[in-house]
Specification:
Blueprint lengths: L4 H13 L4 H4 L2 H14 L7 H21 L5 H10 L7 H16 L6 H13 L5 H12 L8 H12 L6 H9 L1
Helix pairs in contact: 1-4, 3-4, 3-5, 4-6, 5-6, 5-7, 6-8, 7-9, 8-10
Length: 179
């Protein structure tokens, strides 16, 4: 596992610079994993303009690959990819695609793990992308998770996130109070 940003970036840069399309060598789930790892290494680029620019370019390309695969991603991978860029500017089309995938998963009554739910909600709230219909969809899905599936921390995170949006679902708050 690469722990140095300066060692990891050249792997992607080489693929991008030799005429190969990144999506031909990196699958969407792998792009998600790479973005998540790069997020953890971001601090290494602080105060280094050139390294920061390189990181941003690689993230943009990986996001393009991930976005193309979002319609087929698991809830966990959608949550991971959205969280990997939640504090960065741009990536709006990635967020739009992620929100659409979340809507689809909710409407198909896809069973979620609480960790995926928490990560998705947090990422969407950070970007102010939780509209009333998505709040309702996610709220319904959250209530279908068995109460034993929630930890005190996951309840707190979900309630905190939903308290920050204009549209509230009182059923969710009642459900969470009984967990």
């Amino acid at each position: 596992s690469f722990q140095q940003l300066e060692s990891l970036l050249p792997i992607f840069e080489d693929a991008m610079n030799n005429g190969t399309r990144l999506e031909d060598v990196v699958a969407a789930p792998d792009a998600v994993a790479a973005m998540n790892h790069l997020k953890r290494l971001t601090r290494q680029a602080r105060g280094q303009a050139v390294l920061s620019a390189r990181l941003e370019h690689v993230l943009q390309e990986l996001a393009r690959v991930a976005e193309a695969g979002i319609p087929y991603m698991s809830a966990k991978n959608v949550a991971l990819v959205l969280n990997s860029v939640s504090h960065r500017q741009g990536f709006d089309s990635l967020y739009q695609a992620g929100a659409e995938r979340i809507r689809m998963l909710c409407r198909c009554n896809h069973k979620l793990h609480t960790q995926s739910l928490v990560m998705m909600v947090n990422a969407l709230v950070k970007r102010r992308m939780l509209d009333a219909s998505l709040v309702q969809d996610i709220s319904q899905l959250a209530q279908e998770i068995e109460p034993e599936g929630y930890s005190p921390q996951s309840v707190a995170i979900i309630l905190n996130a939903f308290s920050k949006v204009a549209s509230h679902d009182t059923r969710l708050f009642r459900f969470m109070s009984s967990v």
